[in-house]
Structure formats: C-alpha cells, structure tokens
Amino acid sequence: MLESKLQSKMIKLAEENGWYVLKLLSTNKPGIPDLYMYRAGRTVFVEVKREGGKARPLQEYRMKELKEIGVEALVCDSIEKFKELL
C-alpha cells in the first residue's frame, strides 16, 4: 500500500477513536514525524512508512529528541501496528 493511502487510513481510524490528528506538512524542524496525535492528555508523533519501511537518520534523530522530552514518537508501517498504538 502506498504511504499516502496508509497515512489517510491511519488518520481516519485515529479520529474515529477520539484522537485529534494533525498531518504535519512543513515545520521549522525537518525530519519531524508525519502525524501529531492528541487524546486525553496523551501526545504521540507518528512517522508513517510503507510496510517494511525505515525512518531516515534525521527522522530517527527527531524522534529521539521528542522521546528525551517525554513525548511518544514512533514509526508505524501497518494498520495493525497502528491499532496497537490506539
């Protein structure tokens, strides 16, 4: 499945489950994950990759930065993995 289609399905699923979701297109920090998700005091950043895809080094660096300040950040490459997050 194309990354864009997977991302659209993830957004729809998250919103159906009460998450506030923003697709981040352009930020002051290159490499920031694709999706910002918030629900009931929980913030999660999600880098969407097609099945088997890996984050680039800059993306890994940004996720490490987020984790260091106490924010969840991860790579999702399937709907199944995404459902576990929800």
Number of helices in the DSSP assignment: 3
Radius of gyration: 12 Å
Q: Topology as H/E string? A: HEEEHEH
CATH overall fold name: Trna Endonuclease, Chain: A, domain 1
Which strand order spans the largest sheet, edge to edge or round the barrel?
Answer: 1-2-3-4
Return the CATH architecture: 3-Layer(aba) Sandwich
Tell the overall outline: globular
Main pleated sheet: 4 strands, mixed
Structural class from helices and strands? alpha+beta
The portion of residues forming beta strands comes to 15-25%
The total of beta strands comes to 4
Unreliable residue stretches: none
Kindly provide the name of the CATH class: Alpha Beta
Mean pLDDT: 96
> Cα distance, first to last residue?
21 Å
The percentage helix is 25-40%
Describe this structure in words.
The chain is α+β, with helices and mostly antiparallel strands. The chain has three helices and four strands. It has a four-stranded mixed sheet. The longest helix has 14 residues, at 3-16. The model has no long low-confidence stretch (mean pLDDT 96).
Index terms:
single chain, 86 residues, alpha+beta, Trna Endonuclease, Chain: A, domain 1, 3 helices, globular
Secondary-structure map with pairings?
Blueprint: H1 3-16, E1 20-23, E2 35-39, E3 42-48, H2 57-68, E4 72-76, H3 79-85
Parallel strand pairs: 3-4
Antiparallel strand pairs: 1-2, 2-3
